[in-house]
Amino acid sequence: MDLFIDNKSGLPIYDQIYSQIKAEIISGQVKENEPLPSIRSLAKDLRISVITTKRAYEELEREGFIYTVPAKGSFVAGKNTEILREENLKKIEQHIEEIFKLSRCCNLTTEDIIEMVRVMKEE
Description:
It is a single chain. The chain has about 120 residues and is mainly α. The chain is built from 5 helices and 2 strands. The protein has helices at about 15-25, 40-45, 50-60, 80-105, 110-120, and strands spanning about 65-70, 75. Strands 1-2 form a two-stranded antiparallel ribbon. Strand 1 and strand 2 (about 75) form a beta hairpin. Helix 1 (about 15-25) crosses helix 3 and helix 2 packs across helix 3 (about 50-60).
């Protein structure tokens, strides 16, 4: 698992770790029941505080992406299809919001947008 910290991003470090691990789980790059790096080893590799790494793992566990076995470590949880569906729906909604913002600049109607989607789907 290759994680990186961007000190210029403005996002908290724990959030960067959380987002990257979550993206790898959703994309299937990290498989169900696959072990994650230990909190200590990940903190050491990234040269950050153990507390920061722990916070990212706690957030992932709270949302059901990972589970922890005492004295064994943290593992990727079985993919909950409902969680994945919600994640994808959020992404779609964000894209639709962006489409509507751009369409206002071009004076496109909702019907114009729907027609564009129909044409693209046929291709």
